[in-house]
Amino acid sequence: MAVRRSFTFLLRPTSKQAAALTQCLEDHRQLYNAALEHRRTAYRAAKVTIRYGDQSAELKGIRADDSAGQGRWSFSSQQATLRRLDKAFKAFFARVKAGRTPGFPRFKGRGWFDTVEWPKDGDGCRWDSQPHHPTATFVRLQGVGHVRVHQHRRVLGTVKTISIKREGRRWFVVLSCDDVPAQPLPATGAVVGIDMGVARLVTTSNGDHIANQRHLAASAGRLAAAQRDLARRKRGSERRRKAVVRVAALHAKVRRQRLDGAHKAALALVRTYDVIVHEALKVTNMTRRAAPEPDGEGGWLPNGAAAKSGLNKSILDAGWGVFLTILSHKAESAGRKLIAVNPANTSRTCAECGHCAKENRTTQAEFRCVACGHTAHADINAAVNILRAGLALRNAAKAA
């Protein structure tokens, strides 16, 4: 079995190449914004809907009129930027149709456009562009040249798309590869249910815990100092630009730490268990702000917004969504079975007698059944219920 995987490597550009990469991002940002303005103006003035095909057909003329600017970069990468805008519009209309808060596509300011994609290896870009170099790997990008890559592991499969991403002062190349051979692990015969939490990232039905490292909380002091420094800087100044880079670098470090922890936790589970059952969590819905409640007299009723904000921050710091995504990818590659179950009442139901009541959960950590007296750690009790629900789904699927 083959799967699709991405490989991310640090770039080592020279100062001239770094300047060219920065200009490449800026020109693609301006193209994105100009295409967005084109769509807005056409609809506002004449009720005409502009689509991707229309704007892609105009690229040739844009490149000819600006040969020293837009004309320097790969035609296919510019098409990818236009498709990115088209995808944003499709998502907007899908939200409108579904009755959700739509969120119209926005213009990208400086610092909010950090990725450019080349849709095909060999079209304006080339991975491993100097294969006979004795010590280093290079990626060639049109308008930039051969950029050195810190390749820390072997690339598997066939490189399909190449993206360049900026994080603070660092540059990365991201390879999306097809036909990556799966690496199935030997069967263990073990099954497990896992409960996601804030106090602990994961609690298993066997009673094991994986700690929540709280990387954002650990960096909160440095982030607060960097953001205070940023707030004092004059807009448009060089000092403000440097302060923005420092804040972005700290956030990027937290993101890398969270990813590293999620990879290690997911790998430990995949190596140990053949079947892993988890809650089908909708993290986006769980971390929404508390809705304001008018009191009918021009004011607002207390809605617990402050407490909800703190919980939201803790959930996002734990990185539930990131962890479950990585766990899914690793389970697919390893040939493991991953089952998602409805999380409703898993923390209120007794794993011994099945009695479900709010009073069973006396504290955050303690579970005491009011019907049979069963006591257990609340997260372990929930994980056992999750496992049973997952096995019931699997047996029902087999019987169907």
UniProtKB/TrEMBL annotation:
It comes from the Bacteria. GO terms for molecular function: DNA binding; metal ion binding. The keyword Manganese does not apply. Keywords: DNA recombination, DNA-binding, Metal-binding, Transposition, Zinc. InterPro entries: Cas12f1-like_TNB (IPR010095), RNA-guided_DNA_endo/Transpos (IPR051399), Transposase (IPR001959), Transposase_put_HTH (IPR021027). Residues 320-386 form the Cas12f1-like TNB domain. In the C-terminal section; belongs to the transposase 35 family. This is Transposase. It comes from Nonomuraea montanisoli.
